[in-house]
Specification:
alpha+beta, Trna Endonuclease, Chain: A, domain 1, seven-stranded mixed β-sheet, 11 strands, 24% helix, elongated
Length: 213
C-alpha cells in the first residue's frame, strides 16, 4: 500500500521540544550546518533531534566500511520524534536515547545483517533501526527495546489547524499572574511553571505549584 504524505518535520520537531519540556528538559538551539538539528540542555549535554515520519531511525554512513562515521554521531543524546501513526496527524511520541548506544546498535545490527548474507553490492550506507516488528529481525522492535528511553506524555499535531497541541496543558487549571499595571492576566499551569523556572533559573520540573481552594 502506498504511503501517505509526510508530516512537516518542523511540526514533529516542535512536538519533540514540547515533550522534552514536559519532562523537565529545556533545549537551547545550537548553531549547525545544513539540516542538522542540534540543541543543548541546561546541564550542557548536547542533543541531536531526528524526526521520523515512519517508525524507522535512518542512520546514514559516510562509507560502506564497518567503522564508517554515522550522521547520528557527535552529541551526547539522540532525540527521536515520530507520530504514533506513521505520517498521520495526532499523538506524537519521542525517545531520548544515549547517542553512544544508538550508534553501537546501528553498527551491530548492520554488521549482523551483512553477516547474514545480505546482497548489498558493497555499497550500502543506510543503516536503519525499525521501531516496528516488521523490519529485519535483529534491527526491529526498538519501540520495545528502547521503551525505557521514551519520554513521558504525548503532544498532538492537529490535522485541521496544522499546529502542535498539548491537550494536557490546554486543559490545565488556570492560574493568575500579576502584571505591572495591577491587572490580573490568566495563565495556565505549564506556562506558569515555565515562567517561574525562567525567573529562578531552574528547570520547570523543579517548580511545584499548589492551589488551595
Amino acid at each position: 500500500m502506498a504511503k501517505g504524505p509526510r508530516l512537516d518535520n518542523a511540526l514533529l520537531l516542535e512536538a519533540g521540544i514540547r515533550l522534552m519540556e514536559k519532562n523537565g528538559k529545556n533545549l537551547r538551539k545550537l548553531p549547525s550546518r545544513g539540516r542538522s538539528m542540534l540543541f543543548e540542555m541546561s546541564d550542557g549535554q548536547s542533543v541531536r533531534a531526528r524526526t521520523c515520519n515512519d517508525h524507522i531511525l535512518i542512520a546514514v554512513a559516510d562509507s560502506p566500511e564497518e567503522g564508517a562515521k554515522l550522521n547520528i554521531e557527535g552529541t551526547d543524546w539522540l532525540l527521536i520524534v515520530m507520530p504514533v501513526e506513521e505520517r498521520t496527524p495526532g499523538d506524537v511520541i519521542a525517545y531520548l536515547v544515549p547517542t553512544e548506544e544508538a550508534v553501537a546498535t546501528a553498527r551491530k545490527t548492520h554488521a549482523d545483517w551483512i553477516a547474514g548474507g545480505a546482497n548489498t553490492k558493497g555499497a550500502n550506507t543506510t543503516w536503519n533501526l525499525w521501531f516496528t516488528p516488521y523490519g529485519p529481525e535483529k534491527a526491529s522492535g526498538f519501540a520495545e527495546k528502547w521503551a525505557k528511553y521514551r519520554l513521558e506524555g504525548t503532544v498532538r499535531i492537529d490535522g485541521v489547524s496544522g499546529t502542535v497541541v498539548d491537550e494536557e496543558a490546554d486543559d490545565a487549571p488556570m492560574t493568575e499572574s500579576q502584571v505591572s499595571d495591577g491587572k490580573v492576566t490568566p495563565m495556565n499551569m505549564p506556562d506558569a511553571k515555565r515562567a517561574l523556572a525562567a525567573f529562578y533559573g531552574v528547570e520547570p520540573g523543579a517548580i511545584e505549584i499548589v492551589i488551595r481552594g
